[in-house]
Amino acid sequence: MLRKFPTANLKISIIAFTITLIAAGETIALKPLSLPGGENGIGFDDMGFAPSIHRVLVPAGRSGNLDLIDPDTEQITAIGGFSSRASFGGGHGQGVTSSDEGRGLLFATDRDAKRLDVVDPKTQSVIATAPLASGPDYVRYVSTTGEVWVTEPSAARIEVFSVPEDSAPKPAHVDFISVPGGPESLIVDNARGRAYTHLWTDTTLASTSKVAKSLKGGRTVVAGHEG
């Protein structure tokens, strides 16, 4: 089924230089953090914060690790099991490059393996995988539907997976959402039941992420904004 969505190479660090921030009236100096296996270079793409485990999620590309960073102690936990390469090819197209949290699990996309991985942060291991139909970019968990969405720009679509709520949460493909001219990036607003993405031109699209059984077509575009 297809649903239409119309129209670094010294010591690798997350922060390449010291940035000064003003927060709560204090000057905070951020220092570089070296990542495990990052000596030969890493191309970063999508990083975020997982409130449920209080960790910064850093998909570390070529190193083959999804790194979890405790923002309080700066301790780094490297979770392996992803594609790795001996040399850095530049850009951010190697290994694991995007991740998100949901239901106490982490979801990550491996570009080299063209695979969606499910990670248990407690055991620090990959516990389930599913093949992707095309090369991935962003992965996001949609709590309103219990699904995982993966953008596939080369195919101009988002691939949708269901995730069973049991001890073996193996993702299963359920749908495609067509995004002609995109998608670039993906943000899910679970509170409002919407998802946002961009086209490769100056346009942002908004779609409903809630699927009502009584509505034919399910996910639909709400608005497009040219900026």
Description:
34% of the residues are buried. The chain is mostly beta strands and 227 residues long. Residues 4-23, 211-218 and 220-227 have low confidence and may be disordered. The chain is built from no helices and 19 strands. It starts with a strand and ends with a strand. A five-stranded mixed β-sheet has the order 1-15-14-13-12, with no helix packed on it. 0% of the residues lie in helices and 44% in strands. A hairpin with a 6-residue loop joins strand 5 (55-59) and strand 6 (66-69). The protein has one domain: YVTN repeat-like/Quinoprotein amine dehydrogenase (Methylamine Dehydrogenase, Chain H, 7 Propeller).
The helix fraction, in percent, is under 10%
Task: Kindly provide the name of the CATH class.
Answer: Mainly Beta
Order of strands, widest sheet: 1-15-14-13-12
At CATH's second level, what is the architecture?
7 Propeller
What is the rounded distance between the termini?
A: 31 Å
**According to CATH, what is the topology?**
Methylamine Dehydrogenase, Chain H
Mean pLDDT: 79
In the predicted model, the low-confidence regions spanning at least 5 consecutive residues are 4-23, 211-218, 220-227
Shape category: globular
List the helices and strands in order: EEEEEEEEEEEEEEEEEEE
The beta-strand count equals 19
The number of helical runs is: 0
Q: What can be said about the biggest beta sheet?
A: 5 strands, mixed
- Report the β-strand fraction as a percent range: 35-45%
Name of the CATH superfamily: YVTN repeat-like/Quinoprotein amine dehydrogenase
